């Protein structure tokens, strides 16, 4: 009797295993401190197999970044589409989602993108370009929400959009780093409460 194909468990490919292990090592041990041999040992995927899928360690890092960006983008897009939810709440949902995911990964610098950016040299320009683009896209996302909030009279019409978006992104990145450095998980909660108060204080 044949098994129903719907109940087959998809086997994780060697490429996926390598990316999962490499992501953990890059974010917790450090990109510079992680060698291909470390990835081989932790993943139990042969060096030959790794080089079949990736040209070098930087190529692995680029693929790790692509996965991270895709994962966060999916979550942010879902939150952005909930137009029945007030703008201030959606901004907080996005920041909490980004922060929770980052803290769960136990990154060296709190935020995965800050961690990887700090550990890659200027020669790794493709890596830095991806990180810059991600931060830029999140800034534009916050700007879009602020504009929506102003148009719905949920925010004060005089609220400066670009400056406020830059402040919110800075609070997220800086808050993650300080929460990690201080070991105080409540630090981000204080940031979110203050941010909500600031935005609500500038409502019409």
Description of the molecule:
The protein is mainly α. Helices cover 72% and strands 0% of the residues. α4 packs parallel to α7, α5 runs antiparallel to α7 and α7 packs across α8. Pfam families: TetR_C_13, TetR_N. Keywords: DNA-binding, Transcription, Transcription regulation.
Backbone CA Rg: 20 Å
- Which band does the percent of strand residues land in? under 5%
Anisotropy-based shape: elongated
Largest sheet: none
Mean pLDDT: 89
Low-confidence stretches: none
Q: What is the tally of helical segments?
A: 9
Number of separate strands: 0
Give the topology string: H per helix, E per strand: HHHHHHHHH
- Helix-strand category: mainly alpha
Helix-residue proportion: over 70%
N→C terminal distance: 68 Å
Q: In terms of topology, how is this protein built?
A:
Blueprint: H1 14-28, H2 36-43, H3 47-53, H4 57-80, H5 87-105, H6 112-119, H7 125-151, H8 161-182, H9 186-201
Helix pairs in contact: 1-2, 1-4, 4-5, 4-7, 5-7, 5-9, 7-8, 8-9
What's the short story on this structure?
The protein has 204 residues and is mainly alpha-helical.
What brief labels describe this structure?
single chain, 204 residues, mainly alpha, 9 helices
């Amino acid at each position: 009797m044949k098994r129903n194909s719907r109940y087959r468990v998809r086997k994780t490919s060697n490429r996926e295993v390598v990316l999962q292990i490499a992501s953990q090592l890059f974010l917790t041990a450090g990109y510079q401190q992680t060698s291909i041999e470390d990835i081989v040992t932790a993943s139990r995927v042969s060096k030959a197999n790794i080089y079949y899928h990736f040209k070098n360690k930087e190529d692995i890092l680029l693929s790790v970044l692509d996965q991270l960006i895709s994962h966060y983008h999916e979550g942010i897009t879902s939150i952005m589409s909930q137009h029945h939810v007030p703008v201030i709440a959606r901004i907080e949902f996005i920041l909490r989602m980004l922060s929770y995911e980052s803290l769960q990964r136990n990154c060296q610098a709190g935020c995965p993108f800050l961690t990887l950016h700090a550990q890659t040299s200027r020669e790794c320009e493709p890596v830095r370009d991806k990180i810059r683009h991600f931060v830029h896209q999140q800034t534009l996302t916050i700007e879009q929400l602020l504009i929506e909030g102003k148009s719905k009279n949920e925010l004060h019409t005089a609220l400066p959009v670009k400056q406020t978006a830059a402040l919110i992104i800075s609070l997220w990145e800086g808050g993650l780093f300080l929460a990690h450095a201080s070991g105080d998980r409540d630090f981000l909660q204080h940031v979110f409460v203050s941010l909500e108060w600031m935005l609500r204080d500038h409502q019409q």
